Amino acid sequence: MVIIQGGTLVCPDGLRRGDVALEADKVVRIASSIEPAEGDEVYDARGCWVFPGFIDAHTHMQCWTGIDWTADSFETGTRAAACGGTTTIVDYATADRGVTMPDALDEWHKRADGTCTANYAFHMALSEWNERSRADLAIMRERGVCSFKSYFAYDHLRLDDAETLELLESLKPLGGTLCVHCENGTLVDALQKRVYESGIHGPEGHPLSRPDVCEAEAVSRLLYLAHLAGDARVNVVHLSTKLGLEAIRAAKARGQKNIFVETCPQYLLLDDTCFLRDGQDGLEGLEFVMSPPPRKPADRAALREALVNGEIDTIATDHCSFNIHGQKDRGRDDFRKVPNGGAGVEHRPALIATSFADELGPTDLCRLMSENPAKVFGMWPAKGRLAEGADADICVWDPSVSWTISAATQHQNVDHTPYEGFEATGRARLTFVNGVLAACDGEPTGAQPGRYVSR
Description:
This protein has about 450 residues and is an alpha/beta fold.
């Protein structure tokens, strides 16, 4: 057995001091003290919090955009995740137009199977809606996919409102959850052209072309469609604006159920002044080109308040990494050509624990980054809780360690981090995936115990 001794255990019913025993891929015992037997591996967790492994329910690993591959493969991305304390990711497989969902799922399995340090599950993104798509939803459920995605933006991906309504209606009897990228794509396309033609070509044009109204309108539209579909389950991904938050509040005030809300560290820590940074080579602002973009300080403040007040269910990363040199710098003179996406899968727990140190305790961190993702996306009670019988995915977190986030020392396979120089307090000391030590003190052990999570 593996025995983790003397830590503060973050359990579903609160905090307690004690020991945890792992055998094979399960938590087999939790007690105030567990006496090791000969041959047991013992780890000292005194002074540490012992969490169920963190779950990042929004990533894009090894993804082809039509122009670029993302910088992180499943191998590098899940290794980085484990180094930061994340034991499971949920990645967005995508059925491009002309590709069936079963074929897309097969392709994502080929990319991930046998390469992963952390566990992995898949959402399935749809780019078209037809009778084949409708029939394939049940096949996806049989193959362990219970969450799906559609877009209100990007011409090659988006569904119209009628198609979105039919998708929601079809998912409801299957118990499926629809994650939606909420931006008004028609407005974004027009505003990009308008901003560029006004003479603004640098990265600062990106947030100007995607104002808060584009998100809020799409969030409101989604929630009305979900209500029309009988309060179908929807997850608003990467919420970034106060106006979008107000649309969610309005729907809940009307009594609408089954609304789940996700935000990301970039919308809790950054604001739109980041696009004006030059850096040493004049390219730094490009690294923040992601959609939606970091917003105004007032948006950031509103989301931080909502997070502390319990209005936001999960914190994910939308990890979609591209290098500045050779990828993002292609758009140095035209913000519309910059690959959209940012890196964060490795640093999410440290960013949130540090930034909210005075407002969120270990039980809050567990709720936002482990328990709620497991519940929303069909992994509870096997994952997301520290309890006997649960999966042996464990993060032993040392809250006393001070360190600096830097691209030079990260494991994400990308030439920058949006959080360069961030002074973090707290770090994953030990990360166990399926009972196997996958990372120690922020460094990988070389093990690849990650496996597919059927939900």
